[in-house]
Specification:
It is a single chain. The protein has about 130 residues and is of the alpha+beta class. The protein has one domain: Roll (Nuclear Transport Factor 2, Chain: A), CATH 3.10.450.50. The chain is about 40% helix and about 35% strand. It is built from four helices and six strands. Helix 3 crosses helix 4.
Length: about 130
């Protein structure tokens, strides 16, 4: 089993120094994002980019850290922990990439329930702030 670690290395580099232009290039044009708080999968690079860029602003920061990593040839599951507004958040990022190394599917799962409720509110606020006025 040959594991392509390059896409995962790029993801970790992005987490260390978020650059939304780099994130855009990491995403396949037909990428899909599955949120812990939105029922339907979000499809296409622009919307996936908006969700991941917003998540970086909501979850990122000095407390965010990956605590576990499970790898397959074209995917990874990364467990994370952080604290936001005094609530400890535990979750996983399930990332799958294509043969070009671009992310094609990104699923986030979060616990506990109060963390999901907090993220629902904060992500809605962040996504609304990203939309152009008009």
């Amino acid at each position: 089993m040959m594991i392509d670690a390059q896409p995962l290395a790029r993801w970790h580099a992005y987490i260390e120094a978020p650059d939304h232009a780099v994130l855009w290039e990491m995403l396949d044009p037909h990428a899909v994002f599955e949120s812990p708080v939105v029922h339907t999968p979000q499809r296409g690079r622009p919307v996936v980019h908006a969700y991941l860029a917003s998540a970086d602003k909501v979850l990122g920061g000095p407390d965010f850290r990956y605590t576990g990593e499970w790898l397959a040839p074209d995917s990874a599951v990364l467990e994370f922990e952080t604290e936001v507004e005094g609530i400890r958040i535990n979750g996983i990022d399930m990332i799958r990439w294509n043969s070009d190394g671009r992310i094609v599917h990104f699923k986030v799962m979060v616990r506990p329930l109060k963390a999901i409720n907090l993220l629902h509110r904060l992500m809605a606020e962040q996504l609304a702030a990203m939309k152009p006025a008009g």
